[in-house]
TrEMBL record:
GO terms for molecular function: ATP binding; protein kinase activity. It comes from Aegilops tauschii subsp. strangulata. Gene3D superfamilies: Phosphorylase Kinase, domain 1, Transferase(Phosphotransferase) domain 1. SUPFAM superfamilies: Protein kinase-like (PK-like). One of its GO terms (cellular component) is plasma membrane. Keywords: ATP-binding, Cell membrane, Glycoprotein, Kinase, Membrane, Nucleotide-binding, Receptor, Signal, Transferase, Transmembrane, Transmembrane helix. Residues 1-182 form the Protein kinase domain. This is Protein kinase domain-containing protein. It is a single-pass type I membrane protein. It is found in: Cell membrane. The lineage of its organism: Eukaryota, Viridiplantae, Streptophyta, Embryophyta, Tracheophyta. One of its GO terms (biological process) is defense response to oomycetes.
Length: 182
């Protein structure tokens, strides 16, 4: 099984490739609404309005794509880099998981794969970041961070904000702990 053999409505479709000497290029379908990072979390140059229905549909589409990779493909695939810039949007705002450069095949009956840590800080599951053990749960953790971004409409990290608000997860846990104290 290779990434080029899988097909799902919430994954980018590989149309072809070209190899000339040491130059390689992959050809995917055109997705006119760029990435979720550019349209939802970007600098505001997008004219797309993300109401709650579109945000929920985007979240559900990403979840369906991940469920397909994790459960329906054999061997199972762990993406390892689920983040807003790797979610592309078509003309109908259907999310497509892209960038399988870090993906790993999970062998049958394996609980995890030990590997060199790669991916994007802020999205890495703790057990993966600390021990290099990647599982399907690693993608689920990254998806959870992405959900917070989609719901809040802000990036996982932002150095433009006051120090205590720069990291979205820390901000969320701080607010949650304050609510638990009440």
């Amino acid at each position: 099984m290779s990434i080029s053999n899988i097909s799902h409505g919430n994954l980018v479709s590989l149309y072809g490739y070209c190899v000339e000497g040491n130059q390689r290029i992959l050809v995917y379908n055109y997705l006119e609404n760029n990435s979720l990072a550019q349209t939802l979390l970007g600098s505001g140059r997008s004219n797309i309005q993300f109401n709650w229905r579109s945000r929920v549909n985007i979240c559900l589409g990403i979840a369906r794509g991940l469920a397909y990779l994790h459960d329906d493909v054999n061997p199972h695939i762990v993406h390892r880099d689920i983040k807003a810039s790797n979610i592309l949007l078509d003309k109908d705002l259907t999310p497509k998981i892209s960038d399988f450069g870090l993906a790993k095949l999970l062998p049958p009956n394996a609980s995890h794969i030990s590997t060199r840590v790669a991916g994007t800080l802020g999205y890495l599951a703790p057990e993966y970041a600390i021990r290099g053990q990647v599982t399907r749960k690693s993608d689920v953790y990254s998806f959870g961070v992405l959900l917070l971004e989609i719901v809040s409409g802000r990036s996982n990290t932002s150095s433009r904000l006051p120090y205590e608000d720069q990291i979205l997860l820390e901000k969320y846990w701080h607010v949650r702990n304050l609510e638990c104290i009440k």
